[in-house]
Amino acid sequence: MPTPNAQLSPSDPPTDGPSLHVRRLRDRQSDDPAVLHAILAEAHIAHVGIVRGGHPVVLPFLCAVGDLGDGPVLLLHGSTGGGLFLDAGAEGVPVAATVTHLDGLVFARSTHDSSANYRSAMIAGRATVVPTDLRAEALWQVADHLMPGRRAEVREMTAKEVSATQVLQLPLERASVKVRAHGVGEDPADGEDHTVWAGVLPLAVRAGVPIPGDISGDSPVDASVVALSARLERLAADREARIAAVMRVTSV
Length: 252
Hints:
Pfam families: Pyridox_ox_2 (PF12900). Residues 1-21 are annotated as: Disordered. The protein is built from five helices and nine strands; from the N terminus they run βαβββαββααβββα. The chain is of the alpha+beta class.
């Protein structure tokens, strides 16, 4: 990621893409790279927007944050025959990639005042194909991001598997980050019917019970699966605790 004391600069002149400055609710925009890092660290899917044949297209990709030697990048996983990978060619392709976490729905005493808690990031730039000699490393970085610890439990990739898969890399220099992490707006003198419940319904990605394949038999669930399930539960619990603390402070 960018250095901890650096700042994102979404309002810089858009010499290589659109302005990333938030125009509405500007107080929700963050220029702290640590916030971007936290959002991407929990990302599983990035939605990537491109213009193809004069029409806008948005495609979902498994993603990861990695570093292939020249600094942090967003890695996008796909097939060598995938459209975006063909579009990239030798020069790359301009894209906008977005990651959003919906952390809760905010129930106010009117739908107009209701809202949502979220963390979102949009990264704009030129996505380029990972060089062939770095492709296997990029694929392992994607795997380590999505399934931490799994590499130690499975066989190495074959050359055929590596050649059939492709990864795009997108620099993180131009990013726009927006966050809401608050309770419901209310006041004892707001004139609303206070018998109507108002508050936040937390939402999170949580793991269900692992379902074995048909021929796994009684094999125990591997440590990486158990650890990922526990991590998702811990992240969800931490977010719920933080928003509960914010609501206690704002209600005083």
